[in-house]
Amino acid sequence: MLRIAFVCLLLGLLVLAPVARADTTLTFEGLQNLEPILNYYNGGLGGFGSGPGPNYGITFGSDSLALISGLNGGSGNFSNPPSGDTVAFFLTGPGDIMDVPAGFTTGFSFYYSAPYYTGSVTVYDGLDGTGSALATLNLPNTPAGPCTYGSYCPMEPIGVTFSGTAESVNFSGTPDYITFDNITLGNSIPTGGSVPEPGAVVLFATLLGGIGWRFRRVRG
User: Fold this and answer.
1) pLDDT of residue 181
2) Global pTM?
């Protein structure tokens, strides 16, 4: 009887444990403008007290912030994200660090906008951007409009497949000049769209190179 009770307790704990399931998507809706994301996706609160958010067992470093479009009362220099009116970005530090202690496999994808400076995203098999790199995505420049508001649109989908189990991701680039949204775990195609041909974004970015856009930060 004791053995049966122990097994039942163990199964119950496994059911309750937060797990980043396949195709888990983070849209950052529900967070306030410039709010640190922190434990919002770990069933906890953002830095300004928003939440509790979904319990996916995912946390973000202190540099990772939510940003709402200026069209919807925030200070974001963007419009028409793939979902809602909120994206993720960072103002200081090495980038947005996302930790997934339970791990995720198969693939990873997201939308991003980087009209003025390029960026990169690296998937690691350890927490806090440590261990071996399972995959790296170089992020070329994206178009700077036309937008309903601001210059950070449209957001482009991109993704990658990898072997092994990932526990963290570093979204990096020039602080205040790159945005991320609809981060999708377990799939190389982000929720809300399809990944374009690899050369499509690069070609568009090359064409934009000679236009001479004025550099504008993500914040309006």
Assistant:
1) 97
2) 0.82
Q: Choose between 143 and 215: higher pLDDT.
A: 143
pLDDT, position 6: 36
What letter would DSSP give residue 71? G
In three-state secondary structure terms, 207 is: helix
Q: Each residue of 164-178: pLDDT tens digit?
A: 999 999 999 999 999
Instruction: Say which residues have a Cβ less than 8 Å from residue 116's Cβ, sequence separation at least 6.
Output: 141, 144, 174, 177, 213, 215, 216
Q: Please give the C-alpha separations between residue 125 and each of 92, 105, 133, 153, 168, in angstroms, as whole numbers.
A: 24, 10, 7, 31, 7
Residue 64 lies in a domain: yes
Which CATH number belongs to the domain containing residue 117 in this structure? 2.60.120
Torsion, Cα of 170, 60, 20, 87 (10° steps): -80
Domain around 119: 21-208
Band the pLDDT of 193: cuts 50, 70, 90.
low
> Which tokens is 192 given?
């809300």
Asked if residue 52 has a cis previous peptide bond (ω within 30° of 0), the answer is yes
